[in-house]
Amino acid sequence: MSNETKAATFEVLPQQTYVPCKTDYLWGETRHKPFVVWSVHGDRIKVWDPSGGQRLGGFRWIARRNLHESGKTKTGKERKTGYRLHSGPPEEDQELCGSCFRWLDLDQFDATALVYGHSTCRTCKAEIEKMYGVAG
Ligand SMILES: [Zn+2]
Fold first, then answer.
1. For the chain, which residues make up each domain, given as ranges?
2. Which of 84, 117, 82 is nearest to 103 (CA)?
3. 125 CA to centre of ligand 1 in angstroms
4. 42 C-alpha vs ligand 1 centroid, how far in Å?
5. CATH T-level fold of 12-89
6. What is the Å distance from ligand 1's center to 97 Cα?
């Protein structure tokens, strides 16, 4: 037997999306929005955050240790800090829904936007229409 460490089971990869581990204020708390991994630089992860100040989102840096595979620790406790893997990396031809931050097949979308991360899937569109009414 070699001394090789066990294969890492969890890898942070570009285009994965993450959401806060503490979900009870997930959609209300502006500082804890989901984000997309843009690129990985060792322990520093560059992420794209759609609520990052500018209209089309902004970049920020997150420490690798804040990203987790699941919202539970190895002992089964709920994490209260950091972010857990939500979706991705995408398969070929998948598109990111800018509302629920899931990678979905193109036929799941009502309309795809030309701007990255601003498409809306059918499920989200139906919910938006239920809450705010149909546009037009
Ligand atoms: Zn969606």
1. 12-89, 90-136
2. 117
3. 7
4. 30
5. SH3 type barrels. (2.30.30)
6. 5
